[in-house]
Specification:
Elements (H helix, E strand, L loop, with lengths): L4 E4 L5 H14 L7 H7 L2 H6 L1 E6 L5 E8 L13 E9 L8 H15 L4 E7 L3 H9 L3 E2 L5 E4 L2 E9 L1
Parallel strand pairs: 4-5
Antiparallel strand pairs: 1-2, 2-3, 3-4, 5-8, 6-8, 7-8
Organism: Actinophytocola algeriensis
GO molecular function: acyltransferase activity, transferring groups other than amino-acyl groups
InterPro entries: Acyl_CoA_acyltransferase, Bact_Acetyltransf, GNAT_dom
Length: about 160
């Protein structure tokens, strides 16, 4: 197993990030067509209007990605002004079980600390059980009072980690 490094996505990686995100969601059985799929596939707006991170191995292969939405980012959906939100955590199906999702999530938590924010928040599909176990293991707690539906029939649950 090679070492995983988390860093900002580079311009030349944006296409790979979009493809990886779509593939990861598809592998988990989620719909990968329609308006939301277009957002998943197009990493450029996330890189421009938020912080787009990648996890890479020692060869530079992109193994995973996450979108970090600091206060004021148009990508923030459920966070308060003093909270950091993350979205679209995706790990390549071929890289699962190597700690990639955990490395990305830990970097998000570190980033919130660097920015002096009081918490990290996120929304998740009810069916993303593996991700939920990761969040809970890292200390996130469910915040059912903040659960929401961006569109009818898409019910999202929320988590929060106080720093």
């Amino acid at each position: 197993m090679s070492e995983v490094t988390v860093r900002a996505a580079r311009e030349d990686e944006l296409g790979a990030v979009g493809e990886l995100t779509i593939n990861a969601y598809h592998a988990d059985g989620f719909e990968t067509s329609g308006p939301y799929a277009l957002k998943l596939a197009d990493a450029r707006p996330r890189a421009e209007d938020a912080e787009l991170l990648v996890a890479v191995d020692d060869t530079g292969a992109v193994l995973g990605t996450v979108t970090v939405a600091p206060p004021g980012s148009p990508w923030a959906q459920v966070s308060a002004p003093d909270e950091l939100e993350f979205r679209m955590l995706a790990v390549s199906p071929a890289a699962r079980g190597r700690g990639v999702g955990e490395a990305l999530t830990r970097r998000v938590i570190e980033r919130a600390g660097e920015l002096g924010l009081r918490a990290v928040t996120l929304s998740s599909s009810q069916d993303m059980y593996v991700a939920h176990r990761l969040y809970e293991r890292l200390g996130f707690r469910r915040t059912p009072e903040a659960d929401w539906a961006p569109v009818p029939g898409v019910d999202l649950i929320t988590y929060r980690l106080d720093l």
